[in-house]
C-alpha cells in the first residue's frame, strides 16, 4: 500500500521490467478515484498522456493532465498534493524523469531508454480499455470530471496517436516494439504509405514552409517555398487532386533542395529520408494528413502551447490552435537558424540564437547542419542539447545534462533542466521551484542567482564533450 492508499503500488516505483510497470500501474489506476497525469513537454509524452486519458475516459475515471517543462516542475506538481487529507484515492502518473521526492508518491510509466508512448500503450492494453475522448479546460492543465453516464463499451487503443508519439520519439513506424501498433493501424484502414513528404497539412506550401523536420533554403518563408515548388508544375492550390506521382515529384524536389543547400552536411541525406514516403492518415476523423505531420504538431504544442497540446492529445477539437502554434514554432525556429552564430568544437557544434525555440533549433541543426554528433543551441535564458550518438559507448544524455547543471551551480548559475530521448533542455537563471520566479531572488543576498551568458553555458557543456 502506497502513501496514497493504492494497493499493490510500491513506494519506490522503479519497477524491474516494462511488463511489471504496466501491471502495477493498471492495478493502481483501476482503484483510483482520480488520476493526475504529469507529462514531459515533448510529443512522445504528450501522445502517451492522450492514450492513457482515453482509457480513463472510457472507464469514467476523472483525471487531470499537466505538462511540466522541467524535472523540478514535474517533481513539485507530483508531490504538492500528496499529503492532503482528501488525496487517499488519488493517483499521480508521470511521464518523464522526476526527482526522488516524487517517486514516493507517483508512478512513472516510462523510462529513459523507452518511449513513453509504448509504456502508455502497454498500460492501456493491461487495463483492457482503450481510446475515447472528452475533457476541457484552458492553459497547461486539463481536467476531466465524471458524468452520470455509465462507461461505454471498451474502445480500442488509438494506433494513429500512438504512431505519432513514436515518430516524435524518433522511432520509425513499425520498428522494433512498435510493429503491432503499425499493423493495428493498417488493419483498421487508418494509414497507408505513399510517396511525398510528412507534413500535417494538405497544403504543401504551408506544410513544407513551417516544417521543423527538414531544412531547405526556403524553409520558414511561404512565398519562397511556393516559388521553389513551382517547377513541379503542380497546382499547389488543389492538393486534393494529387496522385502518387504528384506526391513523388514533390518529394523529389524537396529532397534535392535539402541536400543541395550550401550549408547542408552529409547527414542531411539521411535525415530527409525519415521525412519522405510518409504514412498518410486515411481517416477523416483525424486532424492531420500524415503521421509524421501529427508528430510535428504534438512536438511543437508540447513546448510552445502545452494546454493546446494536451487538448489535442486528448482528442478535443484543437486543430486550428494547434496548427497556429506549429506554424509559429516552425517560423521562429527557421528564422533563428537564419541569423544564428555557429561554432565548432571537437564533438560539439554550437548554435547561438537571439530568439527562438532552442529544442527545435538544436534538432534541425543536428539533422541538417552539424558536422559534429552533438549540437548545443543557446538562446536567451535557455539552451538545448541534441545528439545523434546512441549505444553504450555514447553515455547517458541524462547524466551529461545533470553534470552540466552541477558545473553551472559551481559557477553560481542556477539552472532547471529536463532530459528526453537523445536531447536535453536547460533553463538557466531560473528558480528551481515551479512556483518561484527567478526574479524573486534578492540580488543582494548570498543566494542570488547568477544569470549566465552564452560563453558560460558553452564552457560548461564543452567540459563533457
UniProtKB/TrEMBL annotation:
Residues 124-158 are annotated as: Disordered. Keywords: Exonuclease, Hydrolase, Nuclease. GO terms for molecular function: exonuclease activity. It comes from the Archaea. Residues 124-133 have a biased composition (Basic and acidic residues). This is Exonuclease RecJ.
Amino acid at each position: 500500500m502506497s502513501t496514497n492508499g493504492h494497493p499493490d503500488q510500491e513506494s519506490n516505483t522503479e519497477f524491474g521490467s516494462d511488463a511489471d510497470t504496466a501491471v502495477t500501474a493498471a492495478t493502481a489506476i483501476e482503484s483510483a478515484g482520480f488520476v493526475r497525469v504529469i507529462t514531459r513537454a515533448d510529443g512522445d509524452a504528450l501522445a502517451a498522456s492522450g492514450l492513457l486519458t482515453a482509457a480513463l475516459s472510457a472507464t469514467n475515471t476523472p483525471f487531470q493532465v499537466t505538462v511540466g517543462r522541467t524535472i523540478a516542475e514535474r517533481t513539485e506538481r507530483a508531490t504538492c498534493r500528496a499529503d492532503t487529507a482528501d488525496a487517499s484515492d488519488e493517483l499521480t502518473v508521470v511521464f518523464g524523469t522526476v526527482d526522488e521526492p516524487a517517486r514516493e508518491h507517483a508512478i512513472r510509466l516510462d523510462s529513459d531508454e523507452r518511449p513513453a508512448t509504448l509504456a502508455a500503450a502497454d498500460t492501456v492494453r493491461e487495463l483492457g480499455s482503450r481510446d475515447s475522448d472528452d475533457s476541457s479546460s484552458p492553459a497547461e492543465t486539463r481536467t476531466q470530471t465524471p458524468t452520470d453516464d455509465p462507461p461505454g463499451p471498451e474502445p480500442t487503443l488509438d494506433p494513429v496517436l500512438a504512431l505519432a508519439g513514436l515518430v516524435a520519439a524518433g522511432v520509425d513506424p513499425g520498428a522494433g516494439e512498435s510493429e503491432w501498433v503499425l499493423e493495428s493501424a493498417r488493419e483498421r484502414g487508418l494509414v497507408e504509405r505513399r510517396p511525398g513528404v510528412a507534413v500535417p497539412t494538405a497544403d504543401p506550401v504551408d506544410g513544407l514552409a513551417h516544417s521543423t523536420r527538414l531544412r531547405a533554403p526556403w524553409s520558414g518563408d511561404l512565398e519562397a517555398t511556393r516559388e521553389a515548388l513551382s517547377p513541379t508544375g503542380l497546382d499547389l492550390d488543389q492538393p486534393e487532386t494529387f496522385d502518387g506521382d504528384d506526391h513523388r515529384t514533390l518529394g523529389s524536389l524537396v529532397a534535392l533542395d535539402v541536400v543541395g543547400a550550401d550549408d547542408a552536411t552529409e547527414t542531411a541525406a539521411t535525415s530527409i529520408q525519415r521525412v519522405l514516403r510518409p504514412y498518410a492518415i486515411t481517416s477523416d476523423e483525424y486532424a492531420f494528413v500524415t503521421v509524421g505531420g501529427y508528430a510535428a504538431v504534438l512536438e511543437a504544442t508540447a513546448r510552445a502551447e502545452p494546454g493546446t497540446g494536451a487538448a489535442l492529445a486528448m482528442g478535443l477539437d484543437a486543430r486550428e490552435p494547434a496548427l497556429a502554434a506549429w506554424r509559429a514554432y516552425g517560423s521562429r525556429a527557421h528564422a533563428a537558424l537564419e541569423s544564428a552564430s555557429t561554432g565548432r568544437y571537437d564533438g560539439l557544434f554550437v548554435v547561438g540564437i537571439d530568439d527562438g525555440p532552442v529544442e527545435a533549433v538544436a534538432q534541425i541543426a543536428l539533422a541538417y547542419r552539424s558536422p559534429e554528433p552533438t549540437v548545443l543551441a543557446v538562446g536567451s535564458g535557455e539552451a538545448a542539447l541534441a545528439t545523434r550518438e546512441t549505444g553504450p559507448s555514447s553515455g547517458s544524455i541524462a547524466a551529461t545534462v545533470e553534470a552540466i547543471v552541477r558545473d553551472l551551480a559551481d559557477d553560481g548559475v542556477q539552472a532547471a533542466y529536463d532530459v528526453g530521448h537523445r536531447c536535453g533542455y536547460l533553463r538557466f537563471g531560473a528558480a528551481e521551484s515551479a512556483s518561484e520566479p527567478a526574479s524573486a531572488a534578492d540580488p543582494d543576498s548570498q543566494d542570488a542567482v547568477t544569470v549566465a551568458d552564452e560563453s558560460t553555458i558553452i564552457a560548461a557543456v564543452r567540459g563533457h564533450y
